Amino acid sequence: MILTSTEFMADAPEGDFDRSFADGVIEDIAAEALLDELDKKQQYIKLRDQENEDIALTVGKLRVELEAAKKRMTEQSAIVAAAEKLVRCKGRYHSELNYRALAKLFGVITPDLPPLVHENVHYADAAEVEITALRQRIAELEAKLETADKLQDSAFRDGLKAGFSYGQTDDQSGFTQCMSAYSTHAGIKREGE
Description:
- The protein is mainly α and about 190 residues long.
- The chain contains 5 helices and no strands.
- It has a domain at about 120-193.
- Helix 2 runs antiparallel to helix 3 (about 95-105) and helix 4 (about 120-165) packs antiparallel against helix 5.
- The longest helix is centred in the N-terminal third of the chain and has 70 residues, at about 20-90.
């Protein structure tokens, strides 16, 4: 608390006291107190400025780290998506061992998988399709063979009838005639043609 000269003098005892000296002392004390207070305020401001500067630097560093982390996350998410796609193939393009290794590497939870019969399911699927197509072709050929056998029997009988009807002694020519008529309708060619 700073005292004015009147307050200082009111407390002072009566006598030959020099008022100008008292005023000077009071002014010096007041000035020194003001200077001390100013110095404290400047130190406080300087401390706050330093704290604000440190905070600004920290915020700047955190922003840079955040951007770098976002960039890494974007890159990682693309890699993880590709890995999950590979893992979901369950060995179609990779063996089950590779599948499990990829799953473990990228932290993907895998269900319990039955062991694969073939190492590469993709090739097994292609082979299965080919086997099915071959079985179908065999069935078609067997059906044609059965039809040809029936036609041959029928043609032979018809040839015999025609040969006897016309009085031919060569039964083979009637048979050939009937076979050619039936073969064009059935779409079956004989080996010699």
